[in-house]
Amino acid sequence: xxxxxxxxxxxxxxxxxxxxxxxxxxxxxxxxxxxxxxxxxxxxxxxxxxxxxxxxxxxxxxxxxxxxxxxxxxxxxxxxxxxxxxxxxxxxxxxxxxxxxxxxxxxxxxxxxxxxxxxxxxxxxxxxx
Amino acid sequence: xxxxxxxxxxxxxxxxxxxxxxxxxxxxxxxxxxxxxxxxxxxxxxxxxxxxxxxxxxxxxxxxxxxxxxxxxxxxxxxxxxxxxxxxxxxxxxxxxxxxxxxxxxxxxxxxxxxxxxxxxxxxxxxxxxxxx
Lengths: 129, 133
Fold this sequence. Notes:
The complex is a heterodimer.
Chain A: H1 2-21, H2 23-26, H3 36-41, H4 46-49, H5 54-66, H6 72-87, H7 90-104, H8 108-112, H9 114-124
Chain B: H1 2-6, H2 11-17, H3 20-33, H4 38-52, H5 58-64, H6 71-108, H7 114-118, H8 120-132
């Protein structure tokens, strides 16, 4: 019975510990808690940081961790698009992700033509969408 | 002293701790105890002996719980429910963040601009182009 009591206490401690450790990914991550490198990478998002969901912040922190390994032009693209992407609604972001998955599931030869096809589409349908 | 004898307490132990006023009280109790039925005296003696034997072991106290409800079992059940809920929330969040991180990074560094992925007509246009060709 003493062993069962100890097990119960251990489980309770794990629960409390688990909820405490869950604060890191699930709790609030203020801008001031970011490292210097993270702040530099995510600088375009500083103004929007406080209004972001914690899941959004953790996603950006994940992207920031991959940032140093990217090519310079890829880094430039991310920084240029970061703010626009962060300001989209969750529904718009989800729609973009779905479309990305769909277009990227095309055969490689079709995928390579996507840039050119996008330009053709824009010329035929120039009105902003 | 008779009461202490009947209650199962050693007389020498009482002598050590009963001076003055306390002795008077003990006397009154002994006097009153003479009027108690035998079975009541016996139960009192058992209760006192039990109390003098010390508190219940922790495991036994846990088993008894409040109003007879087994506290340990309830605590384990509640802890299990809370743990499952928190773990589910945590794991859902972690999985979503991992997925978004991979897709968002790929999308943000892609050759195509974000607008291409936001425009629902672009995909339909591509499909029409494919059918025509």
